[in-house]
Batch of 4 targets.
Target 1
Amino acid sequence: MSKKLFWNYEREIVGSVAYLLENNLVDGILFLDSFPCGPDSLMSIFLNQISNNLDGKLMAIVLAELDSDMGLITRVEAFVNSIRGVKAGVI
């Protein structure tokens, strides 16, 4: 990553995700975010770039007060099913 993040918390998250994906320590990462603006929105862009560059499985979900529980459950289930499909060699 060529850009330096000045926010300590966000830098830790981005670094941790990069480490986990680079070293194949996880099958996938589900990133839950409650703020669609500010440093978190920038961090989501970095996380997606890292995931794409490393062929990692990352799903970022922004939790908004207008989202339904069923919509969230459906997205998480689909992500987990895709991870399982990759591990089983189906996808």
Note: The first helix runs from residue 8 to 22.
Target 2
Amino acid sequence: MTLRDIMIVFKACRDRRLFEHDQRAWLAHTTAFLTAYAPQKSREFPKLKIIESKKSEAPPAAATKNDWRAMLDKARAWVKGKS
């Protein structure tokens, strides 16, 4: 596998975990909301956006830059540390 393949696998794994987290958060929020006692007002109930993942936040500019030399240096440092 190349570094690009590994990055794609890690990104897909992260995206899957975020999706599953949001699904569980929706289920927990909806179940709690539907089973809440009558005196609890809907405006006092926590918003779903608070417990959802923060997908809209963009990664820092340095992390999005795909300079192959920097990636190669990181891979070399990682391999050197493993030996």
Note: The chain has a mean pLDDT of 81.
Target 3
Amino acid sequence: MNLVEQITLQHLAVVAWISTLIMIGVKLLEIDMKNSLLEEGYQVWLLWGFSIILGIVMHLVPNIPLLSFLSR
């Protein structure tokens, strides 16, 4: 596998991870909006917490076993 294919696969994997996390976050908010389990202030904290988790996952992406085989 040449370098271009390797980089493309890594980017696709990262984009897949990020979009999956974003979709999960949006679904959580949708469910919450319907049932209004959380008050408005807590919804903001949910978004903040979710973005922090997203940042941590993005930082750890090279160490995730699923993606590490792509970086070889």
Note: The chain has three helices and no strands.
Target 4
Amino acid sequence: MSQEKHAIWYEPHPVSPERKAAIRSFGFRILDADFKPTDYENPDVPELQLAPELRSDGPTVAEFVAAGYLAIDYPPTGYTPVSTAEEVSQVIADQQAQVQQVPASDESALGQGADEAQQVELTATQIKDLLTAKGIAFKGNASRESLLELLNAAPNA
């Protein structure tokens, strides 16, 4: 009697019926990941790769903002939100209200023709706040230089 040799796929148990069917459809035999040899890697099959798990030990939105980040960028990349959607919305609204309270004299020199000496003093967070106040969209991970370019291109309002 010959026994067919099947490739092995090590998977953390319990395995859902859907996941079992997907793995078996590629001809793999499923073994518990607890028995996986340390030097073994599952074969490279993109359709079977699990999405990386998000960490659940991240900061609250208040801690995130206290560290100098914008609430609109919450939660940090790779983390699940700890704060509720309502808490995040409230902090975003609070930050936007703070930006709108910036005196016009502070904001008037920024934008087209802004004095470079003033811009050098601005942090990325301050530039993001000004862009948000002007309603200009930007990527949360944009560099300070990219943010300055957006600010310089913005019409003075």
Note: Strands lie at 7-11, 28-32.
